[in-house]
């Protein structure tokens, strides 16, 4: 069990920890000289049943409240220290507010320095404590009077903490591993060591881990938990990791970083959160309000954007968006604290609910429903609500990553909810039953409307249909959805177009005769350099305007594509050219496509080769960087021949 001290400066926190454990938490020279705690101190008390009480001694001075926040994150029980001579002081109130904001639910209050006051003063301060804690999570906490100088009450407090440790429920280890780094140092003969509290999951010696947000890959050489060498550390342990890996150095890792399971490395700078603004705060939270965000051991500048109205008033709780100055590693459900930019006062805090918050459309009804779903702690209930509320399909692996869920937990959630899942090369996306029914209906209705408005066209552009049908899917998932049993018998994919299976587009008899004469001119050995409209008209003695009209009709039917003005290629040829381009890219050492080898393979001349490549650019098939191009694999079938 991890015990975290809290309280005003010089109220005896360090002396109390020393009396309880025999260990001096002040380790810095300046701390010894000044007689106050500046950085986090640590002490351990072995128990008879092989358990260990770990103590985090935090500074009480207002200048070091940010360090107090780092120490309070992840503790099991708070030990609020109030000196009997001073009574409740400013940092007492601020630390109490921080413990509330961080969701601390187990607590004991130590009334120290009782050897220095009268019985009347002791009763007065006890009443004072009851008054200041009555509206907090410490309202029912026991107050134990102690003296570190005489030892009075120390045994009783120690026994109480030991009883709390025995009754503490073991933390779940089902999540993926995360450790919040609060110290980084090197030891001779050992190497780089980082310390912190394991927030979730399990870590073993020799495990691969990632330091996030810098993204440094490492391996656990050895580890200590509760100041003892172990092979495994679990959620709730105070842990020291000896890390090894390329690029690892003391100055490359900082307090506030996280050591995580590599699958969790996905830093964020824009988050949605549930924020409670303290009633003691004198200012409204207005759009783009500047603050300091404290999350775990991290401290970073941020701006707050209210999402429920234009302001957040003191004493109120509402959804907000936090835009950070630099990325952090976090998880949904993590607690945070906000302080003013001058670091003089604690303003509020709350819980993170979405690590991938959108910059636009933040206040729509759909987005409000999504945030309500994300606020649910239970992952199964949260995902179920998201699938019903979302206008987009949910990336299942991203959902699990942002909540630090294990693979087993995610699979259990999927099995319980039985959503429709599409597995593409880069993601698994899920759609709920209600959303899928809306999707199927929307596809059919859109195509029916399109065919009614444009009966002479082949079908609706696949990308255009994808973007207007909800829930929105990625291009690859959309193509898979159209082939689902609920749609495959009703719609047809014709390369870049989608049509109803019942829709048939036919040329008139006159156009059929013309097409029979024109088609051979576009195929065969000349397929990569077919004649233009005027050349076809001249060769077949057909008016140029008639040839153009015929080829425009053939384009709508999916038989040809207009590469450039009046320059038409058979659809089969366009598909073949794209496969040739992909083959060239695949054999290039650096994986790029350039015009010269493409021109040589087609034997069509540089000008025509450039026109063809620019056609692919316009359709989003290729990404261009200067003279280099790279094909987007998901569009390789975009010009597949009509089926």
Automatic annotation (TrEMBL):
Positions in coiled-coil regions: none
Keywords tagged on the record: Cytoplasm, Elongation factor, GTP-binding, Nucleotide-binding, Protein biosynthesis
GO molecular function, one term: GTP binding
Compartment(s) of residence: Cytoplasm
Family annotation (InterPro entries): Beta-barrel_SelB, EF-Tu_GTPase, EFTu-like_2, Elong_fac_SelB-wing-hlx_typ-2, G_TR_CS, P-loop_NTPase, SelB_WHD4, Small_GTP-bd
UniProt cross-references to Gene3D superfamilies, sorted A to Z: P-loop containing nucleotide triphosphate hydrolases, Translation factors, Winged helix-like DNA-binding domain superfamily/Winged helix DNA-binding domain
Gene Ontology CC terms: cytoplasm
Domain of life: Bacteria
GO biological process, one term: selenocysteine incorporation
Pfam family, one: WHD_2nd_SelB
PROSITE patterns listed in its UniProt record: G_TR_1 (PS00301), G_TR_2 (PS51722)
Functional summary from the UniProt entry: Translation factor necessary for the incorporation of selenocysteine into proteins. It probably replaces EF-Tu for the insertion of selenocysteine directed by the UGA codon. SelB binds GTP and GDP.
Name of the protein described by the UniProt record: Selenocysteine-specific elongation factor
Species this chain originates from: Luteibacter rhizovicinus DSM 16549
